[in-house]
Amino acid sequence: MTMSEATTIRGCDDWGEAVTIxxxxxxxxxxxxxxxxxxxxxxxxxxxxxLNPFRTRSEEFHRRxxxxxxxxxxxxxxxxxLGLTPFAVAxxxxxxxxxxxxxxxxxxxxxxxxxxxxxxxxxxxxSAVEARIVLEDVINGGIYGVRDFxxxxxxxxxxxxxxxxxxxxxxxxxxxxxxxxxxxxxxDSERFRLxxxxxxxxxxPKFIDLVRVLFGCDPYLKLDLKDMRW
Length: 230
Prior knowledge:
The chain is of the alpha+beta class. It contains nine helices and eight strands. The longest helix is centred in the N-terminal third of the chain and has 18 residues, at 59-76. The N and C termini lie far apart (37 Å).
């Protein structure tokens, strides 16, 4: 598979088309083209998240861990001292090698690279009909109307609950970048939201810290994730 094959253009109805390169494809390309950087990144990732040896290692667990690595490697890992990310490299390659991307598509990829961020969000409202979910960033503050049918459908009608995800602003609209890392409709009380925001804002975690909370050994947040459910 070439980088051009890994680049997909997805239609987004009246929100316009947006060029995207899935994190899985970026990670796969580097695994073959630059195995040294890829292997260094995997070692760093698993050292930092410190997997909990007592967690049940289901197929779903492994899928989410791999997705978390792909996102972190693609958008957060720096392959040089200037902060160059694998996504930036993949975007430039796609512009040069895929005639369907061109400068317009490359600009959209650059916009994704510039605006994407991951956080722990609180669900303010969700509508499957509108394919839209309104998320509050409980770490940094801010409200985001995000275009994403699967997540909006999962939380349809909800006015509470948590989503750990990465979003980016392209064509003036916020969209999910990959699948959410974690979703829970319960607990959904205002009291719990305030507790969650207080803990996270004091800590100000990065994406890899959130991965460690969800899947590794990290007592910082002091949340029993078993109580957070659908």
